[in-house]
């Protein structure tokens, strides 16, 4: 009898959806992706049911039984170590202190590995770059500012406690116009996330719209929430709006400044910028990357851009994320194949 095919699944658990991908025994994506509703706010057991639904859909779409899935990679939007969730983040309280990895593995009968969503997204971006085997650092501006680091060869760098690469909480020496440091969502002040994130975008937009200079701006007179106004800001930037350009330019330059220090510490070889910005127009991405490079060149040594020995050699590549919505789930499928294949 021919040997049963083996598959490996990646489950990317988010606040609203669970994205899932399937990888075969050769470490290749099967092209099978599914998405189900997430129940993280209802507790981990409710989420387990949705994870099982995602596995069943993956197997069904491939025409095999769930038993053909021999390993699972799971990522969660919260700090965790050795399967145990450390803080609530956007999860229900019962996740904290629970070994989610082992409980789900026991329930499903399938061995599992777990990490955070930033690491998973970084691994996904590494996996889709099949002709690249150096290091890769991902920074992902979104609601916050996440990140992850993949070492040469494809291994995730998590740190001893699974807490490495909290890039959004690196301190930066930038202050508001009144000289104060902006408060971050973590409770501290002056974090990079307080400058480069959707939350920071809303704060900066609110500050600017309160100024007389922008009294005639369409967003100043619009009867909508600051959240809705911030959502429209990228469209304004595409139309060369002065206010939008000013805010995004500051964000991009500060992100580049932060990367100057991070690259000096880790020397990854490649920096990938992900998050929602990677899905914007080509015009916006080009501008934003230029602003990142301006900030990087202000803080980063020149040798981290060009080799002083080989003048044509670029020492640190900067690219936009290309993995799309399923980068994290695909990355977790690859790591499951590597660990359990």
Give the helix/strand layout.
Layout: E1 7-13, E2 17-24, E3 29-37, H1 44-62, E4 69-76, E5 80-81, E6 84-85, H2 100-108, E7 112-116, H3 117-128, E8 136-141, E9 145-151, E10 155-156, H4 198-209, H5 218-221, H6 226-231, H7 233-238, H8 242-266, E11 270-273, H9 282-299, E12 317-320, H10 327-340
Parallel strand pairs: 1-4, 4-7, 8-11, 11-12
Antiparallel strand pairs: 1-2, 2-3, 5-6, 8-9, 9-10
Helix pairs in contact: 3-10, 4-8, 8-9
Lateral strand order in the biggest sheet: 3-2-1-4-7
**What is CATH's topology name of the largest domain?**
Nucleotidyltransferase, domain 5
Structural category: alpha/beta
> In the CATH hierarchy, what is the class of the largest domain?
Alpha Beta
- Spans of at least 5 consecutive residues whose pLDDT stays below 50 are none
The total number of structural domains is: 2
- Main sheet properties: 5 strands, mixed
Enumerate how many helices there are, as a single number.
Answer: 10
Name of the CATH superfamily of the largest domain? ATPase, nucleotide binding domain
Please state roughly what percent of the residues sit in beta strands, choosing from under 5%, 5-15%, 15-25%, 25-35%, 35-45% or over 45%: 15-25%
Radius of gyration: 21 Å
Q: Examine the secondary-structure arrangement and name the CATH architecture of the largest domain.
A: 2-Layer Sandwich
- The secondary-structure element order is EEEHEEEHEHEEEHHHHHEHEH
